[in-house]
From TrEMBL:
The lineage of its organism: Bacteria, Pseudomonadati, Pseudomonadota, Alphaproteobacteria, Rhodobacterales. It comes from the Bacteria. It comes from Albidovulum aquaemixtae. This is Lipoprotein.
């Protein structure tokens, strides 16, 4: 009888403490959600002037997937024609968040010869970046920029 009371007391205290986990990284519901789209409102200058790559026209999809020791940010973009290559997510501000926002530029290299337009599915490019738990501390939002729009995910 005494052990049953002890077990009930432990369970009650444990469940009561769950309310404090709402803001904790340990809470499984406190992770980055689905991405939302925003229309581009400003021109973004390239982070590396001699890079030669440009922003992808549209960021069509973005997700933040939890991984051991951090997260992987995956994005899909739609350039205007086929043949774009060397896609990458380039971190702004040396990979550190500004006011809780981590920003990545989705860049691609242009095709050398003129390329045809074809279908959107045949033009899609993908890129990903890993971000460690240390850099995720204090990050409330991750943004991926394209030239016509951006996508973001909040926690």
């Amino acid at each position: 009888m005494k052990s049953s009371v002890t077990i009930l007391l432990v369970v009650a205290l444990t469940l009561g403490g769950c309310g404090r986990l709402r803001e904790s990284r340990l809470n499984p519901f406190n992770w980055f959600g689905r991405s939302t789209e925003q229309t581009a409102t400003q021109t973004v200058a390239p982070a590396v002037p001699d890079d030669g790559r440009i922003l992808v026209a549209q960021v069509t999809d973005m997700e933040v997937a939890r991984q051991p020791g951090g997260a992987i940010i995956r994005a899909t973009g739609l350039p205007p024609t086929q043949g774009f290559w060397d896609a990458a997510l380039v971190a702004e501000n040396s990979g550190f968040p500004v006011d809780g926002v981590m920003t990545y530029r989705f860049v691609v290299a242009e095709p050398i010869p003129p390329a045809r337009v074809s279908t959107p599915q045949s033009r899609e490019v993908s890129a990903a970046a890993y971000i460690s738990n240390i850099k995720l501390e204090g990050v409330r939002q991750i943004v991926v920029l394209g030239s016509q729009n951006s996508r973001s995910s909040r926690r």
